[in-house]
Structures are given as structure tokens and as C-alpha cells.
Amino acid sequence: MFHRTLVLSAVAVVAIGCVVIPSKIEADIRVEIRHIEEQADDLLDFIEGEEPEAMQRPSNWERFVDAIKPIRTAHAQSLKTTSPVVKEKAISMRARLPEVNKLKADKSTGEDNRGYLRLQDDAAAMADADAKNAAQKIVAAENEDRKALYGAIADENRKSNPSITLTVVEGIYADERIERAKTGELVQLPPKGDRFEKIKGTSLGKKLGGDAKPEAWVTVP
User: Which of 112, 121, 181, 214 has the highest CB neighbour number within 10 Å of its CB?
Assistant: First the structure.
């Protein structure tokens, strides 16, 4: 009887361990993801902020550098990151924002569900070879900055939780950008799963109604 009780107690301990450990890991991941979501909100607020006039029409490289210096100083604290790569890429993307917004407005490009810009070859503006070439350069530069930023954020957060991968960070930023998309812009909805269900519950998902399907490209109503 004693032996049987001892065995059952040991099994109970193992069973409890199997439940508690994964729960703690999952809780830690959720906390980390929430932190990255808050950082994404902060970074995108900075990137999408109103452009200073000197930055909109830089006459040369020196004026451009002078224009972004105050931004670097004024917003360094609000970016909530110690990564120089994240700060550098956020500033670079902020400077490129007017060009990116123009491409989105004429539907030359849209936000895909991995957090990157994707050219729309069937867009009317893409019929002009020069315009297409210019758009390709802007998209390539933007996506290069985004990938470096996402990678730096993943590296920064992986120190406390190895489950935070580049793919996780890409998904968080993709969903944030989809929710921020303006009327008339193109976005690709997330794949089937938790991310898609979350988007369906947003005002965008409700506006789309039956058009909200996993991985579908949609025009924001």
C-alpha cells in the first residue's frame, strides 16, 4: 500500500510539473509579445509622425542630416529601445514615409501579412517602366530597413525569451500595420489562426465582413 501511494505521488508530481512548466513558458511568451506589441505601437507612431518641413524637401545630403538630428535627440527616449539599429532604421523609415505613402495611395504597393511592402504588378501606375523601377527601389530600401529593424528587435528580446524569433516579430508588426492602414490602401490579411481571428475582431475586420478571409488581399474600406 505504501509503495502504491509513493508511486501515485510521484506520478502526480510529474503530471503537475508537465502542466506548470508549459503554462509558465506560455505566460512568459505572452508577456514578451505584449512588450513587443507596445514597442511596435511606439515605433510606428514615431515613423508615421508629422514630417518637419526641412525634411520634406531636403536640398542636399547635409540639409537632410541636419533635419533628422533633432528627431534623433528628441525621440530617442520615446522609442523605448537601447538598440542603435532600431533607432537608425526607424529614422530612415520615417524619412522615406512620404514616398511609401504615395505608393500605397495609388495601390502600387500594399502591406503583406509578414510585415513587408509588396509591389502590385497589376496596379495602373506600374504600367510605366520608369515609375515601376522607382517604386521597386523604394520598396527594396524600405523592406531592407524593416527586416533589419525586426531582426534587431528579435535579438533584443530573445535574450530574455528564446522563443521570440524573427517570424514572431514580423507577425506582430504586420498585424499592427494592417490595423493602421488607411481607407483605399491594400493589405494582406493574416493566415488562418490566432492572428487572423484577432484582425477579424477589429474595426477593419468588421467592416470587411465576408471579405475577411485568411491571406486575402483586400482594399481597406
Answer: 112
